[in-house]
Amino acid sequence: DQQVKQNSPSLSVQEGRISILNCDYTNSMFDYFLWYKKYPAEGPTFLISISSIKDKNEDGRFTVFLNKSAKHLSLHIVPSQPGDSAVYFCAASGNTGTASKLTFGTGTRLQVTL
Amino acid sequence: SAVISQKPSRDICQRGTSLTIQCQVDSQVTMMFWYRQQPGQSLTLIATANQGSEATYESGFVIDKFPISRPNLTFSTLTVSNMSPEDSSIYLCSVADSGGNEKLFFGSGTQLSVL
After folding, report:
1. If DSSP codes are grouped into helix, strand and coil, which group holds residue B74?
2. What is the pLDDT of residues A19-73, one digit of tens each?
3. Could you say which of A34, A56, A84, B61 has the lowest number of CB atoms within 10 Å?
4. Is the model's pLDDT at A88 over the cut of 60?
5. Which of A32, A34, A6 is CA-nearest to residue A20?
6. Inter-chain contact B108–A4, Cβ cutoff 8 Å?
């Protein structure tokens, strides 16, 4: 039972354009959502997060949008840069304040082309 | 943030053998987490390593297969026992952000291939 789904295994975007990575979840108890970025041979690194009390959180080129009614969140990267090429994981938690129960999606591989 | 050193970074092992993965953190942390990422799959929590008590295993993972040690607040090991090709995965050590939120910091992972 995949509670966090990233239905696009890969995405290719031209440098300078917007990258939109999508994530859907099924568990209505999830109340905190995170995006991680992973380069080959490295561990995932935290990118941005959002609490369920918000519908948008922005950090520089990265913006996460949350649509609770649709159980959907998305990560926007604008403008996309070649260094953004990585695998992006969406994660969700239903225990606010505790890191021990993150549920991850399967990841989307983003390739930013020149 | 925490700096996590994990080794080995990769290994190729024979079926039936065991491999111990080490995880060192540059600061004292209460809980350390061990994750697995099978090919094409999401990161799955194996267990939480608590200092001074037994590890807490998630559904589908057992201590006999994945024994964990946590001798102090900066170090943990995960052993993959009696390996089979199905154990071929990336194993990741992680710790929680000291700010008390859900943010995790990860080691660079151990790429395990079992022949």
Report:
1. coil
2. 999 999 999 989 899 999 999 888 999 999 999 999 999 999 999 999 999 999 9
3. A56
4. yes
5. A6
6. no
